[in-house]
Amino acid sequence: MPTCRDITEVASDYLEGRVSWADWAMLRLHFALCPPCREYVEQLGLTVEALRSLDEPPPELVHGELLSIYRAWRTEGAAEE
């Protein structure tokens, strides 16, 4: 069974359909048992969709800010485990 940390590492691959059927099934089971991970992946998917719908990429400053927030979130999450 994947851990919550595993989910954050494969979320993009899952959303893009780049996981094996067996991994997909294990991830789906984890999502059924872990609402926070399910919500995380849903939010990530919505974010990706929103960014893809933009006519042009976000300004470099926004991109850098989002990346910093994401990195801080990952570091905090790793410290809590």
Enumerate the spans where pLDDT stays under 50 for 5 or more consecutive residues.
none
Which CATH architecture is right?
Answer: Orthogonal Bundle
Shape field: globular
Strand content: under 5%
pLDDT averaged residue by residue? 86
Please give a structural write-up.
Helices cover 79% and strands 0% of the residues. It has 81 residues and is mostly helical. It has one domain: Arc Repressor Mutant, subunit A (Orthogonal Bundle), CATH 1.10.10. The longest helix is centred in the last third of the chain and has 21 residues. 4% of the residues are buried.
Defining key terms:
4 helices, mainly alpha, 81 residues, Arc Repressor Mutant, subunit A, single chain
